[in-house]
Design brief:
Largest sheet: none
Structural class: mainly alpha
Distance between the termini: 25 Å
Subcellular location: Cell membrane; Membrane
Family: Belongs to the exbB/tolQ family.
InterPro entries: ExbB/TolQ_transport (IPR050790), MotA_ExbB_proton_chnl (IPR002898)
Membrane topology: Multi-pass membrane protein
Keywords: Cell membrane, Membrane, Protein transport, Transmembrane, Transmembrane helix, Transport
Oligomer: single chain
Number of strands: 0
Number of helices: 9
Radius of gyration: 28 Å
Shape: rod-shaped
Number of domains: 1
Helix content: over 70%
Order of helices and strands: HHHHHHHHH
Length: 275
């Protein structure tokens, strides 16, 4: 019965995880559909080509990108996914951080703990909200529960508080890391699809060179352009994916450190005040 107060948040976390999974399921095909439509109706518009025919040479950057071939909308879809999932992670991690600065919140809680004011520390968690505050508040609830339990000694009580904090952390952290694997996967896929487009373009270029008679310089330049465009898009997608993945892992590590630091303070405060 001692652990009962810390469990009601579990269905909420499962619901959040399910919503995040549903978002990913819908976002991936929608991104690809959007970029295919952009490729056909925007980049492939006749105004971007000589004579209004997409088969002719391009007159601007949009027509040049369209000449990259069928791999272009796929890579563009990956790039759009990076943007969409980055925005989603910014929102989720922002909510997890709470309403105020996490470092300032941790300092305030530690100051209340050092003064032995557990109620004020819990009230600070209610003000802050978010994952960090939820975990700390769970630890403070356990603190109050075990404080007057005659069946446990001080060491057992401290271990119970620590275990409760670890369990609360295990419920909160997966929600922050969800969908990060998609961004991490796009790092490799973006490069590989760019390489595939490059290979396809170079195959066409060498085929033109191997053709009988004088090579068609227009067709040759088109294939080389296709290769270079796919290379540029693939590298750009991978570069942005790496940057965003590192940004989010850094933010999550910061939140985890704040939880660990404050959790340690709660346990130490209990142990020192109940010797």
């Amino acid at each position: 019965m001692a652990n009962a107060p810390s469990k009601p948040s579990t269905p909420v976390k499962k619901e959040s995880s399910s919503a995040s999974g549903m978002f990913a399921t819908l976002a991936i095909p929608l991104c690809l559909i959007v970029t295919v439509l952009i490729y056909i109706f925007v980049l492939g518009d006749g105004s971007h080509f000589k004579g209004g025919d997409p088969k002719n040479d391009p007159t601007d950057i949009f027509g040049t990108v369209h000449k990259g071939g069928v791999i272009v909308p796929i890579i563009m879809g990956f790039l759009l996914m990076v943007i969409v999932f980055s925005i989603e992670r910014f929102i989720v991690i922002g909510k997890a951080s709470g309403t105020g600065n996490v470092d300032a919140f941790v300092r305030r809680v530690q100051s209340f703990l050092n003064a032995g004011n557990i109620e004020a520390a819990a009230a600070e968690c209610d003000k802050q909200k978010g994952s960090v505050a939820n975990v700390i508040k769970s630890g403070l609830k356990k603190y109050r529960e075990v404080e007057n339990d005659p069946a446990m000694d001080t060491e057992q009580k401290a271990l119970a508080i620590q275990k409760d904090i670890e369990e609360a952390t295990a419920l909160e952290m997966p929600m922050l890391e969800q969908n990060l694997t998609i961004i991490a996967t796009l790092v490799s896929i973006g490069t590989l699809m760019g390489l595939l487009g490059t290979v396809i373009g170079m195959i066409g270029a060498f085929a033109e060179l191997a053709a009988a008679g004088a090579p068609n310089t227009s067709a040759l330049s088109t294939h080389i352009s296709e290769a270079l465009i796919n290379t540029a898009l693939g590298i750009s997608t991978s570069a942005i994916s790496i940057i965003m993945y590192n940004v989010f892992t850094s933010k999550i590590d910061k939140l985890t450190y704040a939880i660990d630091e404050t959790g340690f303070s709660i346990v130490q405060t209990f142990a020192s005040s109940h010797k």
